Amino acid sequence: MRRFLMSFIVVALVLGFTQCRKKTTEVIPYNKKAFNITLDVGGAKTNVIPETGEVLFERGDEILVANNGVYVGRLICDGGAFRGTITNPDTRDCLHFYHLGNRDVGTLIEGSSTECFVSIADQTLSLPVISYGHSKDNFSPDVSTYSAFLDNKCALVKFDVSTSSQYAGTYIRGMNNTVHVDFTQSSFDYYKENEGNITLPPESGEKWAILLPQPEKAEGDVGSAYSGAYTGTRGYVPEITANTYYPEGIPVIVETKTVPRGAISGLFTVDKRGKQVHFAKGNLVYDKITKMWRFFEEQFEMLYTEETNVGVDYSETNMIEHFGWGTSGFNHGGVTYQPWITGEPNTNYYAYGEESYGLYAETGIADWGYNMMDNGGLAYRQWRTITSREMTFLFEEREDAGKKYGFGSIRDGKMIYKGMIILPDDWILPDGLRFTPGVIDSFKTNTYTLSDWAQMEAAGAVFLPCSGRRHDGVCTCIQTHGYYWTSDAFDVNQSCCLMFEMGRLDPARGYIRFNGMPVRLVIE
Which of these, 106, 152, 425, lies nearest to 276 by C-alpha position? Predict the structure, then answer.
């Protein structure tokens, strides 16, 4: 592949690179003083210009500052220069500037943090350019304005994507997707996490991505690229070196239907055009400690029993399965977006800050399914929350809809799990089992042992347990009611959900947004 030297550099007021002295001992602080500084990198208005490879900054971009081997502060772009405060800098070293793609680097403590880790795995919304530079001279308390040339530690690479998936992002495996930054050495190390996945924006077309330095990669086998329920391959990737630009286009073809990891095999039609989805293998759960999202391993699994007190903002537990609406964990513009929030008012739970918006009305980050699922593919933007219209179609309008759902229960020893059974489009009842469809006054009509249910699930059946709901910090209606969020708003205080209880089913009911409910994601 022809290799281009990038103009993929910051347009900067350059005073020149000189080797600055750096010591990691004998810090001489200025009585714990903070200094306001300005960094001039030339100003700019946009992120990356793929046609030329030019990197530019925009308002809100961040630069981390290190000095004498430790983190000392953060600068924010105001549309031109970067401005901010640094604490206790040492005059025996220059200032080191790191732009890390505005990505989450964890908690950094001024004066003590010596390293950070940066993931570039999710590139569906922006290109995470990684760059570094340092000031010409050592820090001086008498100088407040600095200039630096930021040298890129990554490459800009074009992919030509052909995919049959419209909603899900396209992801490629086997790439270095994590950076270890060592402030003591101003060094960068690159490696793979979560199979080396990098998620590109949805749909077919020309997609640009940031890649980290790595050896060349042979053309990938089937499975080296995925998009939702489709699998495929990525082409040959040349050796990637820092500050380079590859515009020729690496082919990615993702067009073979498959059963995605974390999904039930059954296919369910959800609209008149024939769109089909797979359901996740279990309800969604979030771990506050690991910050990981995953699915329960069993469809009938649940965390809470009747009157479980999870506490205000889940202070009594680290595991969450009842979510306020729109609490994906991404700051999408609503007042409340963290998965552990339990409080009122309902207006805090607006997706993107708008009363009428659905979970993926704009970027999609308000939807729980945008997250990487630990046991569901380990890639961003593969799953989604079913819409209210799709839920209604599933129960009322698809072919033989009335024959393809019913109440039931699963026995696990002395434990009985009650819930709703939904059958796939091409349902074939396993030999020796029975199924009675419809909304009835009992969950006992369709009762299965664990081995019976294993056969039902293998044939594609979905089970939504009566996991109840959470009001404030208390969980109720366990084993009597099923509530499941959909992606749509209902009115000023409510969003749409599926609700069922003995003798009753409502696929598009409005329910107050701050109440917590289970979520069962789908993939297409």
Answer: 425
Closest CA to 179 of 208, 155, 154: 154
Q: Which residues contact 142 (CB under 8 A, 6 or more apart)?
A: none
CB atoms within 10 A of CB 311: 14
The vertex-38 CA angle with 34 and 43, nearest 5°, equals 155
Tell me what the pLDDT averaged over the chain comes to: 91
What predicted TM-score, i.e. pTM, was given to this entire model? 0.89
Give residue for tokens 């599926």: 498
Classify burial at 290, counting beta carbons within 10 Å of its beta carbon; exposed 0-12, middle 13-18, buried 19 or more.
exposed
**CA 465 to CA 455: how far, in whole Å?**
18
Query: Running DSSP on this structure, what letter comes out for residue 74?
Result: E
- The Cα–Cα gap between 410 and 219 comes to 46
Sign of the Cα torsion 343, 346, 348, 349 reads: positive
The DSSP H or E segment spanning 421 is strand 415-422
pLDDT tens column, 16-53: 333 454 444 444 444 568 999 999 886 443 356 666 66
Bridge partner residues of 206 (DSSP) = 160
**Interatomic CA distance for residues 9 and 156, integer angstroms:** 11
Q: Identify which of 106, 153, 161, 131 has the alpha carbon closest to the alpha carbon of residue 10.
A: 131
Q: Whose CA is closest to 507, among 441, 432, 422?
A: 422
Residues forming a β-bridge with 82: 39, 77
pLDDT tens-digit readout, 291-318: 999 999 999 999 999 999 999 999 999 9
471 phi and psi angles, rounded to 5 deg: -115, 120
Q: What is the 3-state secondary structure (H, E, C) of 379-416?
A: CCCCCECCCHHHHHHHHHCCCCHHHCEEEEEEEECCEE
Q: In the sheet where 292-295 sits, what is the strand order?
A: 292-295, 284-287, 319-320
Residue indicated by tokens 């990487």: 372
CA distance 29 to 17: 25
For residue 51, give Cα distances in angstroms to 1, 56, 206, 251: 17, 13, 11, 18
Instruction: Give the number of other CB atoms < 10 A from CB of residue 325.
Output: 32
H/E stretch holding 319: strand 319-320
